[in-house]
Design a protein that fits this description.
The protein is an all-alpha fold. The chain is built from 15 helices and no strands.
């Protein structure tokens, strides 16, 4: 016999929804944790094999970005095959929402992921992650301009904090900074931020009618193809790719691709379960996770300015993407 709980059906339904939302918060936090770890793993991969060649400072990171997106798309392809979604990819590719996802892939891949990995290569993940965590703020500003969305006073305050945090980090290079490379890395992190912010606006519009797992798979596939057939040939062909596939660093990038795919999937699942604002606010904590993992697994020195800048950006992002009172009350919608 079922256990009698003494609660009405309506109360039981509210509790079920609350438990569902709480689990979504866990997925959102885990997505940020995995992306922070993904960045540190990528940084380690860039220190080995052909990626460590300083003469290939541009081609090597972009090759790593290509491998990351292609490997992530393979992981997602396996997921979609196992869940029976594989046919949806071909059917969705040339629809209007699918085309928006393809366009989002070009901004999020060559600009976003490319700038992100170059930034990690030149400045290190602890400095790049807090700056790229500005991408939701960029998406909010673009949505205001192109989608006529309104930005509240609270969100403007959050944007100001984000900019202040980025300035604190950018003007506080590590003591062992290799000349101008650090500032080039910071500049590429800013490029990545605008690429991901633009991707966010396009993909949000495209995913209104597409399954998130299918849309994400299309995004990674299109990005990988753009790298392989356009970006890398323009920069000198597949020279680094051929060496990288034969080097141990390819296994590191395989792991990074798996972490990246898992992070994206958990983020989309969190948005579905607990709302976009809460999920995004938890996802951007990858800036803080990146600093923690950098301190644990690399030789990065965590300075006071870096920590203050990261905390400032994370606080600003929470203000931008969600009302704090609503975020602490799971019974309200996001």
């Amino acid at each position: 016999m079922p256990e009698f709980t003494g609660r009405s059906p309506a109360a039981a339904l509210v509790q079920r929804d609350l438990d569902f939302a709480k689990l979504g918060l866990i997925w959102g936090l885990l997505s940020g944790m995995l992306w922070g770890l993904n960045s540190v793993v990528l940084d380690q991969g860039l220190k080995h094999g052909p990626f460590a060649n300083s003469a290939l400072w541009l081609l090597a990171p972009l090759t790593a970005a290509a491998m990351h997106d292609i490997l992530a798309s393979c992981w997602l392809l396996l997921f979609n095959v196992s869940t029976g979604r594989i046919r949806e990819i071909g059917r969705s590719l040339f629809t209007r929402p699918g085309i928006k996802i393809c366009l989002a892939a070009l901004f999020g891949g060559p600009l976003g992921m490319g700038g992100y990995i170059i930034g990690i290569k030149l400045a290190g993940p602890a400095y790049v992650l807090p700056i790229t965590s500005l991408y939701p703020a960029v998406a909010s500003a673009l949505a205001m301009v192109f989608l006529n969305e309104r930005i509240s006073l609270r969100a403007w305050l959050g944007l100001a904090l984000c900019v202040a945090g980025a300035i604190i980090i950018g003007y506080s290079p590590p003591d062992a900074s290799p000349g101008n490379d650090f500032y080039i890395g910071i500049a590429m992190a800013i490029v990545a931020t605008f690429g991901w912010g633009t991707e966010g606006v396009l993909s949000t519009s495209g995913m209104d009618l597409l399954d998130p797992a299918v849309a994400l798979n299309i995004r990674q596939l299109v990005s990988g193809v753009a790298y392989m057939l356009i970006i890398l040939p323009l920069l000198g062909g597949w020279l680094v790719l051929e060496d990288a596939l034969a080097a141990p660093s390819s296994l590191i990038l395989l792991g990074a691709g798996g972490l990246g795919a898992a992070s994206y999937m958990l983020w989309y699942r969190s948005m579905n379960m607990t709302g976009v604002s809460r999920a995004m606010a938890l996802n951007v904590t990858y800036a803080l996770w990146g600093i923690l993992f950098s301190a644990l697994f690399s030789d990065t020195t965590i300075t006071l300015a870096l920590t203050v800048g990261a905390v400032t950006i994370t606080t600003g992002m929470i203000l931008v993407v969600g009302n704090i009172k609503e975020m602490t009350n799971l019974r309200n919608g996001a």
